[in-house]
Design a protein that fits this description.
255 residues; alpha/beta; L-arginine/glycine Amidinotransferase, Chain A; three-stranded mixed beta sheet; 22% helix; binds citrulline
């Protein structure tokens, strides 16, 4: 069974962390409606969706991908780079334990956000960012390297997370903004470049044979359609005001 953990949008969503975007007013009801439609896209892709509660002290909790990295062997609970987000881990730990996943944890002084970790089969790519430091990447490398994954680490620049700059759209293909991440890191994989007018377009969520993708990037979308990928478009502009995108709103794993 394919599980997708999601998390309710906090009533304090408009107090979210912001790094690269200026603060713009967020319509929380509209964000919630977009989030629900995103969850339906996950259901249509074959996922069983479990939505966790959040709270007024967790404005960014909807971005559940940042607090855990889930692989076949179990989950790694992260230590988010933004201190205010560390209180998000407890609820996710409880849920992953309920689902029977073995857990390990990133320890201080390591910091790591799940948004900086891209897993493609047995290959793991880690971005060093304002949120993920070398110590966090080293710990992840030890944990996953120890169970047969190859782990590559490289700095990202100009964006929040590695997965702002690159994601997988098929098992052998990445969608990439080369201005933000070194393309050499993905040697051996096919690459689709984002349209230069759409720098934020590299975040796509491949799940259950479809690619869940923001409706806000028509130029890059055309490139993906030419590759015969099945796209499932979602409106996420209200979530994008909080620097969120499609991968960050779920944790997907096989049970
Ligand atoms: C943050 O700055 O932590 C949130 N406002 C956005 C997190 C987005 N996460 C992701 O792309 N993995």
């Amino acid at each position: 069974m394919l599980m997708a953990l999601t998390r309710e949008i906090s009533e304090a969503f408009d107090e979210c962390q912001l790094t690269h975007l200026p603060r713009a007013p967020i319509d929380v009801s509209r964000a919630r409606a977009q989030h629900t439609a995103y969850e339906w896209a996950l259901v249509e892709a074959g996922c069983t969706v479990r939505r966790l509660d959040s709270g007024p002290d967790m404005p960014d909790a909807v971005f559940v991908e940042d607090v855990a990295v889930v692989v076949n062997e179990g989950a790694i609970i992260t230590r988010p780079g933004a201190e205010a987000r560390r209180r998000e881990t407890a609820g996710v730990v409880a849920s992953l334990v309920r689902h029977g996943l073995p857990l390990q944890e990133i320890q201080s002084p390591g910091t790591l956000d799940g948004g900086d970790v891209l897993v493609i089969g047995r290959r793991v790519f880690v971005g060093l960012s304002a949120r993920t430091n070398q110590a966090g990447a080293d710990q992840l490398l030890k944990m996953l390297g120890g169970v047969g994954y190859t782990v590559r680490v490289a700095p990202v620049r100009g964006c929040l997370h590695l997965k702002s700059a690159v994601t997988a759209v098929a098992p052998d293909t990445v969608l990439i903004n080369r201005d933000w991440v070194p393309a050499e890191m993905f040697d051996g994989l096919a690459m689709v470049d984002v349209d230069p007018l759409e720098p934020h377009a590299a975040n796509a969520l491949a799940v259950g044979g479809v690619v869940i993708y923001s409706a806000g990037f028509p130029r890059t979308r055309k490139k993906l359609e030419h590759r015969d990928l099945r796209l499932r478009l979602v409106e996420v502009d209200e979530l994008q005001k909080a620097e969120g995108a499609v991968t960050c709103c779920s944790l997907i794993f096989e049970l």
